[in-house]
Amino acid sequence: LEDVGIGSVRQQVVNLVREALATTVPDVEDIEPQVAVCGNPKNGDYQCNNAMGIWSKIKGKNTSFKNPNAIGQALAGSLPRSSLTDSVSVAGPGFVNIKLSDRWIEKKLHQLLSHGVGEWAPALSYKRVVVDFSSPNIAKEMHVGHLRSTIIGDSLCRMLEYCGVEVLRRNHVGDWGTQFGMLIEYLFEEFPNWEEIGDQAVGDLQDFYKKAKIKFDVDAAFKEKAQKAVVLLQGGNPQYRAAWAKICDVSRKSFDQVYKRLKVTLEEKGESAYNEYIPGVVEELKGKGLVEDSEGAKVIKVSGQTIPLILVKSDGGFNYASTDMTAMWYRLNEEKAEVMVYVTDVGQSQHFDMVFKAAKRAGWLPEDESQLPRARHVGFGLVLGADGKRFRTRSTEVVRLVDLLDEAKDRSKQGLVERGREGEWSAEELEEAAEALGYGAIKYADLKNNRLTNYTFNFDQMLDIRGNTAVYLLYAHARICSIIRKSEKNVEELKKTGQMKLQHPSERALGLQLIRFGEFVEDAASDLLPNVLCEYLYTLSGMFTDFYTNCKVVGSEEETSRLLLCEATAVIMRECFKLLGIEPLYRL
Ligand code: ARG
């Protein structure tokens, strides 16, 4: 296999265009290659749009070019010779259209089959990223908002990891704050033997929280005790520390259940972890002259906001913002993050806007957001119920995440039983498939929408085998695997000896979509939009259907080539599933 290069296909085209720019207009500064997919596939596969921009820079100056089209012609003429290109043409005001060669597409697909998808990973401009996601609050419910954060955050981590980025997956749990005073005192009162009791005895922590809160609101003596408890805890009193740790531990175990089911890994570094650094950070910010007094509080003013960021409360205590400023300081200085990503609902946009602006004022982040280090808030919309309101269930006001996962799995299992899989498969296989379908459905239903929009939680829709669902896609993948099995050919052998030949237009279209995998990941990862990858996968699946409708595979003359194309499709579908956090199924 001759070297067909690495990175995304678009990056490979960009490299050619960069060379052409350097030879065509060596004296024009600051021109970045502008490469896009051809608007009209008849013209080619990619187009370079630089000619018009260059023209506006050089027209009227002493130049040999008469118009933008002439620049386009010159660029086309100086594109380095490469096995990548089949033909180059210039259209309209200077668009340079590039058609990839079929042979090159075939070679790229062979590269995938023999070396794996790693060679296609796009190069990003940063190497170390903190992704702050999931981040539920101790003793409070982990609600659907946290589920969204967990699913979206995990997928973004997976994409960045695929691109070779070192990702610090951070669970910024709310494990600090004044609510712990009442929780600890309530623990002491209700469970005098709290040190010995098991976690189950504390029971449902949400319920525990509610009861503690009620007592706090009605019982003045308890309230006073709780307030003193906060001081004792923050002062490091061992008994209060131990009680705090106990409460955190109970919560942590219930969060971990959800992560385990969803196969999400995270490293907890909760709010408490930054506490010891807050005074130092406040001093640093004061030293920079950023901190002002406002009604007893210490604040930082930021542009475009009517309220300032409150760094120290009027009672001298620290809050959510103090912790986030400090966590950012820590991530930049101790963890050497180049990019920091925060995945929360859009309701927190204002908070992060203020934190980021304060960090710019402090000189921690550059004003120019194209430079590193960089902070990005990945906001997402609400999950709605059938009534169009915030998602809740009838019995309880909050939806328990484990119940949602259970229901998705149960319904999927039911579907498999109806299809007669119960007798055919082992109980274990049935269980595994039900989980892959059920959890995959929940994840995909969340990821496929632009994260900023609200979406309606609907089991029937997300578990539908037709339509843009994980279930449909998992079936599509399993069908491809069964085509390969039916051929009774050894694919591993075919990969070594077989030859791929793209002949039918639908074969070429499928092949092209496959090799473009890397650039979709590139877009999804740089814009932090998992739905971009979902759309890619759904389109890919449609293209496979076109191919399979038009081209006979098993028993045809082109069987070997077409089986390889099937295999390449299955490989890429599995890669997409992996980046979306979905388990593939090989038969269904
Ligand atoms: N615990 C917060 C919540 O439940 C989310 C924390 C997000 N991360 C952060 N660094 N503020 O709303």
Stated plainly, the CATH topology of the domain at 401-580 is called Isoleucyl-tRNA Synthetase, Domain 1
| Number of beta strands | 14
CATH superfamily heading of the domain at 401-580: Isoleucyl-tRNA Synthetase, Domain 1
Largest sheet: 5 strands, parallel
Mean pLDDT: 95
The number of distinct helices, counting runs of at least 4 residues, comes to 23
Structural class: alpha/beta
Strand content: 5-15%
Give the ligands present. arginine
User: End-to-end distance, in Å?
Assistant: 35 Å
Corresponding CATH architecture of the domain at 401-580 = Orthogonal Bundle
Stretches with pLDDT under 50, minimum 5 residues: none
Shape: flat
Helicity level:
40-55%
Biggest sheet strand line-up: 7-6-5-11-12
CATH class of the domain at 401-580: Mainly Alpha
EC number: 6.1.1.19
Enzyme class: ligase
Family: Belongs to the class-I aminoacyl-tRNA synthetase family.
Function: Forms part of a macromolecular complex that catalyzes the attachment of specific amino acids to cognate tRNAs during protein synthesis.
